[in-house]
Structures are given as structure tokens and as C-alpha cells.
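Researcher: Quick one. two chains, 1089 residues in total.
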Amino acid sequence: MSDAKYFQRGKIQELRTELNSDKKDPKHSKKKTVMKKIVANMTMGNDMSPLFSDVIACMNIPQLEIKKMVYLYLINYARSKPDMALLAVNSFVRVSTLITAVVNNGGRMEQCERSEHFHFWRAIASGFFISWVAASTPIDSERSEHIIQIVASGSESVSSKVETAPQAGEPQVTHILIKTLKKQDVSDPNPLIRALAIRTMSYIQVDKITDCLCEPLRHCLRDRDPYVRKTAAICVAKLYMHDRALVENEGFLEGLRGLLDDENSTVVANAVVALSEIADRSDRFDLNFDFSVANKLLTALNECSEWGQTYILESLLHVVPQEHNDAELLADRVAPRLQHANSAVVLTAARVILYLVNYIQRDDVVNSLYKKLGPPLVTLLHNGPEVQYVALRNILLILQRQPDFLKNEMKVFFCKYNDPIYVKLAKLEIMFRLAREENVGEVLGELKEYATEVDVDFVRKSVRSIGRCAIKIDKAADRCVNALVELIQTKVSYVVQEAVVVIKDIFRKYPNRYETLLTTLCSNLSDLDEPEAKSSFIFIIGQYADRITNADELLSSFLDTFKDETAEVQLSLLTAVVKLFIKRPSVGQELVPRVLKAATEEVDNPDLRDRGFVYWRLLSSDPVAAKAIILGDLPPISTETDNMEGTLLDELLLHISTLASIYHKPPNTFIGGVKNRRLIPSKAFVHRTYNIPTAEVPEGAEEREQEPR
Amino acid sequence: MSFFHVRHENIYLVGVTKVNANAGLVFEFLYKVVNLGRSYFGRFDEEAVKNNFTLIYELLDEICDFGFPQNTESETLKLFITTEGVKSEKNSKDEGSKIAIQATGAVAWRRPDIKYRKNEAFIDVIESVNLLMSAKGTVLRADVSGSILMRAYLSGMPECKFGLNDRVLLEKEGKIGSSPAGRKAPGAVELDDCQFHQCVKLASFDSNRTINFIPPDGEFELMKYRTTENINLPFRVHAVANEVSKTTVEFKVAVRSQFASKVYAQNVVIKIPVPTNTSGAKIVVTAGRAKYVGSENCLVWKIARFQGQAEYLFSAEAELTSTTVKKAWSRPPISMDFQVLMFTASGLMVRFLKIFEKSNYPSVKWVRYMTKAGTYQIRF
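Model:
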């Protein structure tokens, strides 16, 4: 095969000439070549729409391969260029003529090959035919009516078998369509074709058409062949997107529910996924499976494809267990899925188990379930990097609910040198969470190694993680601080700056322990250029103004560029200077007026101005109060604030493996029109209390110091 | 709108969604499309896509309906979507029903009417051993991820039963006494986790740890497993680098094979990173060949055949061009690539493969073992 050569930009005019050439072409091989060029160009995104009528003219060529390409062309441009509909009316009559002729001859047209592919394209043809009409509707309904009329009459004039419309005024096209479908349903013995017909039809979402879809669809839902039934199940979901009322009124939801009892597992899986999809969007319809339905679904689980298993597992979240026992039983039967090779099955099984845990009373059962989750999730790290990332983000969520569920698995999260950066960053976060007194040595060794790598983001996060470990684990603080000092001495600018930021927090967490560091810090901080690092350093100067002898010089040098700094730096500079003044009035008295004047008169930022005024008045009216307030105790700092809030976590755990679990945000924050998923209480629901963080201190809490009043 | 993409060869496969889609499912599906492409076209790259664009349109229509992945088994798909295009007329009707049943059945991965004159099954146990060793020679991390590939050329609907020297199973069968965790039970392997091809009956594995399945025809990955206990590292590497002066770095590397002397490794490649401002290197090796590869910033040492229980040495002196900015060299780890035949780093062995079929035909089974390097890295 060498079709690749057709992927060159073609000139419309040349293609048109080739297409209309009168040269002898008995086997249509020339036409085929031109069509390939056109479709290739279309695939590349070149606009081939000016050739519309010329391409349509090829419709009549009795060659399957050409026909396929013409349809591809039509489907593409009928959707994107509805305004061309009218231009091509005449050609379109020919198209419809052909289609109708084919349809009415029941595939007996002698010049057409009778083959599976032929059937396939016949189905597509009828589908296209409608979509094309449909595409023109939004522009001008009168015009499209007109088209439909022309089409209808055109086809009628050709085919003697087309029945006339029973009622005047109703577009005849619908009748042709119904006939098409019915004919195919009744006459076509091949289930693949029956399914293809209904599948294609249901992609076309126009009122007149969907009305006519109902009857054949109902028929297909009860087809004797499972392949047709499973296709029809999805069609109901498609139809629902277009016309909710229709689906509800015509009893299709009941039809779908009926399929849950189907003997074929693939049908069950598709029915259940269609129902879930509908329930997710409907305000009136909620899915709620009882235990017996759940049992049936689980039986089907053993026999369907990997995708089907995923759908069934997802649907189990619609089961609200009424007894602890039921939940345990369900979890027991879902757990073997964790051994599946398909990561979608594994992750979705994990979601179901995490959901069921809410309804299980016995702690030992719950713990053993968490234990089962660990190894399969770790195994996902041997998949491609994309799946690894999904797994890592989800592990991070689960860790917040059950911090020890991967207690002894630290090493698998060590970064490999050639991991993609997004995987590395996600691993770092997990390493930090798994760090405990016993393993912090290993973790630190790794983090120090990472801090010398080349990727700046990764290095920064590694440095920051070292600091966070110091704050998280008291006994490891010394080692962490030593590591940071080593890193500061490398003098790599971004390493030093990142270190300053975390050291600020370490100072706050362990007052009077690491002040000896001050000298190292001050001597290595020649060129800070990042706001966060600057403001951290300034905070440190202010906080230790009494110990840093040249505090005034340092602050003064920052003050020279006050107006060019970011608001973050300006705010901390203001506070630091005032602290210096209170601690060492004689040293600070020259700087204070400068900073107050700058903050209140030279800057437009109202936060800064207001803070300036507050300090000013405090200092001038009540120096004692000023001291108590400005040098007051800082709120304690801890790493627990990194945990997310309990109800949010509850919600996200219901979305394991989805986008929400990757973003760590509820779905309605990034997409519209979805229902929130919440845990539904039942008498089996168990309220567990988790270690929810008490201290809510945001990083950089110095802004809060001024709030005592 | 969210976009999911994976890259294969020189093409990107992108999934697009407006809803809170199951990300695991989307990525798995994209990987599956890659595999399907490979199975259809041999190589799945830009050329293949261009050469088969109509077929690809057709395939996509079949494997994904309204965004829901459907049957993606190439075995079934190849019955009715083929590269030859049009199929002849006579087999369309009955064939259609058969295909439909196959595509929705419980054994969607296998046709019922397969016949072989000689019934054979080949099993390949392929292990990737991952190692991260610190500069001091301590093992920071070592694990094995294994894959058991099967090529089944078996007639009819064979039921297979497969057994490994899995510690949990052996204990269950009473073949060995249960040992406290951590201590090595002789001849048994502790699997941290395993995952199976969809043909394996998971419920029976869960209840009694037996691996039962009806295999697809031809090649497939029966299972994957992972272990971290008692790993036999095939190679030990000892490396030192000295930055003797601003323009020279000295390297000394010793590699020792730790597997039995009867066994050998092939295609051993050791990559020793050098600073980016390296201009050349003088290298002496006791086996194989080594050279400086500027594009990779590495000294590459290749040994075609590495006998067990052997040790080879490498010493080199890299010359650096002097640079104005002195930036510390980050020293990426040494990495190693190799294949060792008839050796498993985990100690895993296939104990049996039993095949039961209605007609009770005899069958021949073959097993091979291979251990290769996953990410085998040594810091220095």
C-alpha cells in the first residue's frame, strides 16, 4: 500500500479538472485516485468543500471504494458546512435518488457488489442522507423544508416502490427513512448490518428523524441478536442527549432497565452504562439499584469484556447498601477485579471498594480491604507514564483518607532518572506523605539526590520537600536542616531561594533551635530574584532583627527598590521594618518613616496602604499595644494543612480514576451540567471520624499578625 | 474540554471529552488502539495511518460507540474489518451472526473453530529487573516486573491450568510449610501482586490461587507480576569517578556477573555519563568495546557476551574543555542494559501447564526464561 503519497496539498482547480475529465476510465481507477487525494486533503484539514458538487457527481460510480470515500467526504462537509446545502440541491437529488434506489431494490442493484461492506455503506448512506438534510435546518428551516421536498420528490420520481405520503404536508423524507430502516430490520438477516443501521441513524440528531427512530429502536432493543441489542442500548443514550422527553415518554428507560436482565453480559454492560450516562444528566431520573440487581450485575461482571467490566463496576456506585453484610459481600466479589490487566478495571474496582467501605461496620474488614488496594495500585506504576500519573494522583487521594495503606511501599515511589517530570512531581508528593520517622533517612537521601538534577521544577520541589519533612517529623528536623545547609552552599540560585522559603517555615515551627543558621543564610543570599524567596528572607530578618546585627542594612537595600517589588515583598518589607523598629528603635528609626511613607503615599495597593496606616497610628498612639500586636506569637505551623477538607475528600473518593481525581477538584468546578455525587445515607452507613486537621494555618501566615482587633 | 494524549512512534493519539471521564479508561483505550494498529499494520506510525486511513475510520466506528469502548479484540475485529477491503458475498449472512455472537460472547477473544495439526503452546517468562543503587553500593530499590507471554497454537476450546512456584499457592497445596514473612522458603517465590489477561478466571484465582483460562489464539500476555523479595541481581557494578582537575575526570568501573557460570548474558551495554563539556576520552577495557558518544554525553561500553561469574574492568580518562562558567556536574546515574537467557531474577519457575480439551489431543509445551534490564541504574 502506498496511499501515503496522496497526502500532499492539492489545488482545488486541478482536482476538479481531474474529477471531471472525460478520458476513458473503464475501471474508474483515475476517479479513485482523485478521490483519495481529496479525502487525504480533507483529513489534513485542507478545505475541500468547493468540490462539493463535483464529488457528489461521483456518487453514481458503482465502485465500493469510491463510494466509501464520497461518503466520508459528505459526512465531513455536511456537518461543517451546512450552508452549502442549498448550493448542492441538484446534486443532492441525485444522491438521494441513488440511495432510495438502492434501498428499494433491497440490495439487488446489479451493478453494486452485494457484500458486507456494501451493506455497511448502505447504512451509512441512509444515515448521511438524513444528516445532510439535518445539517441545513439550523440555517433556515424553510429552506431545508424545501430541500426535503426536493429530495423526496426526486427519490419518488425514480423509485416506483416509494409509498406516497399518507398525509399532505408531512415531509416525505421521513417515510423514506422509516422504510429504509424497516426494510433493513426486516429484510437484512445480518445482525451486524441491523446494528450498523441503527447506530448510524442514532448519530443524526434532528427532531423529524429521531421521531422516526423510535419504532425501529424499540424493535432493536428486543432483537434476537445480542449484538443488535447492545448497540441499541447505547442508541438510547444518544437519543437522550437530543430529546430527553422523547426517551422518557416513549418508555425507553424501561426498555433499558429490561436489558439489565439480559442473558448476554455485554448487553447488560451497555445497558447499564447507558442508564448511568442518562442518570448523570437527568434532573428527574436517578439510578438506584437494589441488592438483587447488584447481584445480577456482578454475575455479568465475570463474563463481559474489560470495558464492560468497567461499566458494570462504575454502576455499582448506584447501589446503596442497606446492611453492613451486603456491603461486605459486594466488596468481596469486586475485589478479584483488582488483579485485572486493564488499569481501568483495577482503578474502577478500587473506586467501588472505597465507596463500599462507607457502609461496612467492622474495622478489620475495612482494613483488610485497604490492604488489598495497595499492591494493585502500585503495580499500575509499571504501565505507561500516563496511567502511572493517574494512579499516583489517586494514591495521593487515598493516602489522605488512610495514611498507612501503603506503609511499607516507600521505595516504589522513588523517582527514576528518566521518569517524565509530571510523574516525578507526583511521586515526590507521595514520598513526602509516606515519610515517617523510621524511613525519613531513605527519603532524605533520595531528595538530596534529586536536588542536584537538572530539571528546575523538580529540584525546587525536592528542596521544598526536605523542608516539609523537617516540619512534619520533629526528630528528623536536624538531618533535614543539615541537608538544606549543604544545598545552600552549592550556591545554585534557585536551590538557595527555594531553601530560604522552607527555612522560614522551619524557624517558625522550631523557634530558638536553628538560629545558628542565620549567618550561613545571610552570607549566601546575595542575589535573590524571586518574590517568594525575597519575602521569606525579609520575614526572617524582621523576625530576628535583634540577632542580625546588620538587619538595618539588609532591609535598607530592599527598601531602595521598594516600588519595583511585588505586593507580597512590599507587605513583608513593611512588617519587617516595623518589627526592627520595635525591637531596636535606634537602628530602625531612620527606616520606619521611609517605609511608612512609601507604603501610604507612593503605592496604589490598598492592602499595603491600609496596613501602613494601621502601623503608623499604632506606633504613634500606643507603642505598648503596638509591640504586643506586632510582635505577638505567631500561630503554630504544621504540614497537616496540606490535607484536604473531609467532605471534599469524600466526594473525590467517589470519583477515583476520573478527571476529578487527577485535578483533585469536584467535577462541577471544571465542567458544567453534571450532578454532584454524594454519599447517600442508609441504615448501614457508618460515620467514621478521620484525623481531620485542626490547625488551619496557611503558608506565609504573617499577613494574619495584624488581626487581633 | 479535556484532552488526553499518548504518543506512539511519530503520532499522537488524542482522546477528547467534555465530561468527567474515567481517565484510566481513556488511556487504556488509547494504548489499545496502538496495539490494534500494530496488530493490523505491523508498525503503527504516520505512514501506516496515511496508508490505511479508510480502514482506520472503519475500525474506530466499531471499537468505540458514542465514546464507550466496545469490543477491541483484534481476533474478532479481523473477522470483519480487513485490510483487503471487500469480502466475498456468500459468507456474509451466517458469518455476520457468528461474528455478532463472538463479539458479544463471554469468550470474545477466541473463535470456536480453530484447528491445528500439531497442538503447541510456548511460554516465555520475561523479567525486567529494576535497580537503583546508591554511590555507596547499597541497594536503594530493587524489584522485578515480570511478564508471562504465551503463544498458543491449540485447537478447539482448550481449558488451561497454569502453575508457578508461587509461595502462597505452594503453601495452600501443602507442598511447603508456611514460613514467616521475609524468610525465604526454598524454591518458592513471593509475588507482591499479579495481574491477568482478561481470559483468566479471576474469581478462581481469588479463592484458591489457581490460574485457569481459555487462551486467545496466538500470542498474548497471560499475566504480569511484581516482586521485591529475594531478588537475584544479575550484575553488580562498582564505579568511581574522580574529577582530578578542571579538565580531566577519571573513571573506574567494575562489573561482575552474579548468575551461574553456565548461563550467559548478551547485548550488555553500560552507559557511563560524562560532563557535557567532554571533548574526548581515553578508555581501556578488559572485555568488549567502549567509546565516547558525544550526542548522549556518555561513555558506552558494549559486551556482546558476558559469561556468568565473571568480572570485567573499565577505566577511562575524560578530557574536558575548559568552560567559563563553573556549574556543578549533576552526575546522572550509570545505566545498564542486558539480556540473560534461562535465568529469572525473581527465581520464578513454571511448574506446569495442563491443557484439557474435549477431543483430548496431546499437546507440546515449551518454556523459556529471560531476564532483561528494566531501569538498572547505579549512582556514583
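Confidence is low (pLDDT under 50) at residues 83-187, 692-709 of chain A.
Researcher: Thanks, that's what I needed.
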